[in-house]
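Supplementary Text 2. Reproducibility record for the structural model of the 207-residue chain.

All settings were left at their defaults, and a single model was retained for analysis rather than an ensemble. We include the record here because the model underlies the residue-level annotations in Supplementary Table 4.
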Amino acid sequence: MNFDDIKSAWNKEPEQPIEVPNTIESLKKAQMPLDKFRKNMRGEAIFQVVALLVSVFIPGYFNLIPALRVSFNCTYILFVITTLYFLIRFYGLYKKIGQSSLTTKDSLYELNYDLKLNIELYKMFNYMLLIIFLAFGAIILVNFNYEYFMKGIVNEPGYFYVVFGLTILSICIVIHFFAIIWLNQYYGKYAKEIESLIGALKEEQQD
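Retained model, structure tokens:
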């Protein structure tokens, strides 16, 4: 076969369009829920800082008696330590999402792992906040009816602790229920979108 035959055969070959891998499109789609996740993290951080600042004024605003100020100060210190730890951990994830470049499936897998880890951390943080806010509420309530609570503890301790315990348990259940809804709407649904995209990537690899 001479050169002219080779040239003729080459020209007869059908032109094949260059196909862009679907994985690239999946990675681009992943950036959208990550951006929303990051935006919610900013709002969460602002809310926590405001809550810390506002809580400082509780003793003065409600005019807490000296005996309850000690309890409040101890609870507030726990609130500060817990919140700062959470914000530092959350800032690390926030910064990582901002600097990440989703050019490979491995980067998406790594971010998905970090999201799951921090969501579990967020659940623990909410449980800690639940205890702290219940303590704040109990301190304020006792401050308004200090003599009544003291009489109840001294005269009918059994009845008082049963009622108090059932009340706290009921509040915890209600707050826990709404915390789950909040978590799913604020972070969970975006994490599920990432998982769906990862599932799509795995299916593409198998095809």
